[in-house]
Amino acid sequence: MTSLESRSPQSAPMSREEFETELYKVGERQYHDLHPFHKLLHGGKLAHGQVQAWALNRFYYQVSIPKKDLALMSRMDDPALRREWLHRVLDHDGLNEDGSQKEGKDGGIERWLKLTDGLGLDRDYVRSLEGILPATRFAVDAYVHFVSTRTTLEAVASSLTELFASAIHKERIAGFEQNYEFANDQTLSYFRKRLDEAPRDVRFGLSYVLEHARTYEQQVKSIAALRFKTELLWAQLDALHHAYVTPGLIPPGAFVPEGMEPTRFTR
Fold this sequence. Notes:
The chain is mostly helical and 267 residues long. It has a single domain, classed as Heme oxygenase-like (Heme Oxygenase, Chain A, Up-down Bundle), CATH 1.20.910. The chain is built from eleven helices and no strands.
């Protein structure tokens, strides 16, 4: 098979099977389950404060997902596509059909807050976003900007990290239950729910991309969009590892776990 790098933008489109294979290759090469920080996290090698730092920073990503989805929906011309995409917003915001938020019907944001509750983080502090790393903010904001400005096809393709999400959620649940005292039905509810939601989302997203990427150029841009998403997820873990594992340089204003000393930067 000819490599993508050797083809010109005017090349004939890949077959559906070849295109799908190339999308999966992105995850095989660079999904963030390969990152050293995740291996430490899932293997029970992180101290309590380091897990707190991960959950706190990841919360910014969680609260930004509905924003990026609504930004995408605002540019969708097809009402059927908007209706299909709307459930992603509701999955995270937790709004029921009658407009209420009922016990047991929480969205992903509320379920993530149950995780940070279990880790001993103050909800007001988590929601304030005051303690997140600068790199977390830049990476997540870059994702919202990407989805807000690229084509609908590229934006949908960037969501296809869900192709690989179920495996990482299963690994995380098992690792947390085995290694951390905070793990229980409440604190792990986000990950258990995503085991149902992510496959449903990816079935539609993958089908949409395979159907609508009709030219070779569109296929290449779709693959690049997925690669961009994996890179921003990787960048967030780079920042966490640098600040809270090694060399342990916590930026000014960022969350400092109990027992860790704030880094003193001098001119």
